[in-house]
Amino acid sequence: MKPQQQLTFSNRYTSIAIGLHWLMAILIISLFAVGLYMHDLPLSPWKLQIYSWHKWAGVTAFLLVMIRLLWRFTHSPPPLPMNMSRTAEVAAHIGHGLLYLLMIAIPLSGWLMSSAKGFQTVYFGIIPIPDLLTKNKELGNALREVHETLNFVLIALVIGHAGAAFKHHFFDKDDVLTRMLPKRKH
């Protein structure tokens, strides 16, 4: 086994990338949990408030992923461990690409669904987000299915992503997990 590499600036993510990563992780897990909770609530003021919060968080997630992508395109990530197989490298790149794709597609599908169902999103109750579609109940229902399915695919990928990070840490003994953790103060 290779000894654990010494962490240096060059093999760590930037503080901005780390912060965006963990903020998105918390937001995605929270959005998923709230989505499951609100799905079968009876129509009430509480349900409407939860839906508003969910939509606000979804818009925020969309904005954050755009910031995250901009950061990612202007700041190279640390290299993958040298002992990773080519297959594992390809899987890592595909997995990350799918995560980004879904972090964009899910809020867009929610926005399209809300538009088709005739429920405009008003960000934080202040900024109206324009509808992308005219009201169409059948399309709204189809988009709800798309939105739900994409969310379950995302959660499966998030679980796989976390599992891979733990595998790297506990079995491969490399720095893949620790370079995405905030720096510890000594």
Any descriptors?
single chain; about 190 residues; mainly alpha; Fumarate Reductase Cytochrome B subunit
Explained architecture:
It is a multi-pass membrane protein. Its main location: membrane. It is found in: Cell membrane. The protein is mainly α and 186 residues long. The protein has a single domain, classed as Fumarate Reductase Cytochrome B subunit (Up-down Bundle). The chain has four helices and two strands. It has helices spanning 15-39, 45-74, 86-117, 137-172, and strands at 121-123, 127-129. The protein has a two-stranded antiparallel sheet. A hairpin with a 3-residue loop joins strand 1 (121-123) and strand 2 (127-129). Helix 1 (15-39) runs antiparallel to helix 2 (45-74) and helix 1 (15-39) packs across helix 4. It is elongated, with a radius of gyration of 19 Å. It starts with 14 loop residues before the first helix and ends in a 14-residue tail after the last helix. The model is unreliable at 1-9 (pLDDT under 50).
List the helices and strands and how they pair.
Elements: H1 15-39, H2 45-74, H3 86-117, E1 121-123, E2 127-129, H4 137-172
Antiparallel strand pairs: 1-2
Provide a brief overview of the structure:
Its cofactor is heme b. With 186 residues, the chain is mostly helical.
**Major sheet characteristics:** 2 strands, antiparallel
In total, how many beta strands?
2
Q: Which structural category do the helix and sheet elements fall into?
A: mainly alpha
Spatial order of the strands forming the largest sheet: 1-2
